[in-house]
Amino acid sequence: MEISNSTAGSHYPRLPPGFRFHPTDEELVVHYLKKKAAACPLPVTIIAEVDLYKYDPWELPSKASFGEQEWYFFSPRERKYPNGERPNRAATSGYWKATGVDKAILTANGTQKVGVKKALVFTEEATERY
């Protein structure tokens, strides 16, 4: 069941007082992403489903289900070309570019790789002025 938060205009799940959502990378992959991909029930519906590329980064906090300084989203992954592997990261007024080295997400004991973390930066496209 969800309750409405009229000040933010979004819906928050009913959570106990003092609740904080600070999952580790492993917890995000194992308890949320893998379950979401397998269409299994999630522990709590706290991560919003948003097509990130339809919005500019400064618009995303208002799309989140929960959070004040960090926000989490499930977003569909689109391909740039129908038969290719390259992701389409074009957004409204720019694009998201991968930067740095991909970081392996390991289990707490460090024995198994459960995912990969990519760092993305947003680059605004210059607008032509006449």
Automatic annotation (TrEMBL):
Protein name: NAC domain-containing protein
Keywords: DNA-binding, Nucleus, Transcription, Transcription regulation
UniProt-listed Pfam families: NAM
An annotated Gene Ontology molecular function: DNA binding
Organism superkingdom: Eukaryota
NAC domain ranges (all copies): 15-130
GO biological process per UniProt: regulation of DNA-templated transcription
InterPro entries reported in the protein's UniProt record: NAC-dom, NAC_dom_sf
Keyword Phosphoprotein: no
Compartments, record wording: Nucleus
Gene Ontology cellular component annotations, sorted alphabetically: nucleus
